[in-house]
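This part of the workshop introduces the protein records we will be handling. As an example, a complete record with its sequence and its structure tokens follows.
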Amino acid sequence: MDTPGRTCERVEQVLEQQIAQVRTPEAAEAVVRHAEALTAGDTAEERARTTAATPRSAASAVELAAQTAPPAERVAAVLTTTAAEAAAETPEAPAVQEAALAALGSGSAPPGTERGRELLREAVLRRMNPLDHLDARLFLLVNSAPHPSWLDAAVDNVTVITRGGWVWAIGVAIAGVLGTREARRALALLLPSLLSTTAVVEYPVKSYFRRRRPFIDVVQALVVGRRPGGWSFPSGHTASSFTAALVLSTLWPRLSPLFFGLASCVGVSRVYAGAHYPSDVSFGALFGISLAALVRRLVGRWLDRAGRRRRRWRIR
């Protein structure tokens, strides 16, 4: 098996050669159409699992796509194969990601490659409806901002620790141990709210809309950390964070700017990381707040009734 450096070199070379073949807007449009056909109905996670089960090396798979695909589909085949290899749970995936970023990112590249990747990105954007086009432009504005290594590391850590919103529950539990008033009630309201939001957003809602991730749709998207599988709309990280912010703000209203500020940072980090469009984040916040308001009301009534029953038993 190749070393990571050799894998990166081989994949980058094939990508640069193929992207340089895109010389006109019409050719770019054709590549995007073929790429959409090759990936129709599949998530990145599904393609990654299939790729990981193949014994062929990542570099060999990309080279084979360049050699065997029909000429009209060759560039699209190389791009989609590279995306699948980069998302697969294999030791070679980080090297493939590095190669893809070098060839498709905003850094320097041979003139033909620079021209081709710009044509591809514009072709992707032209095929979007006006609202999606605006969404993608906003995504690129945030996602293509400077990515210092310390900030990338911080955003990757935020992604890990805020998954499912459980870090908020852990924080409330610690506050309870330290003697913070209302912490027990906050935890009783927060846990069912987080469970409900995660269950609704991550399964029926995402499965219904089936929106692909921006790093699949938008050429030149930068991805911080591992590329997530599954569908993009809405953002689950953002939904759970805004769920927690709403629940906690009802009990500690003076801290609501802090809670919603932290939730907003989580949302922006998902765009910066290349995992979501701005609209994914906006609707994730809306879903999180709406579901939290509903569940908090139902659970709150149950807690109040339970509290009244306990008080009556004490009086008796």
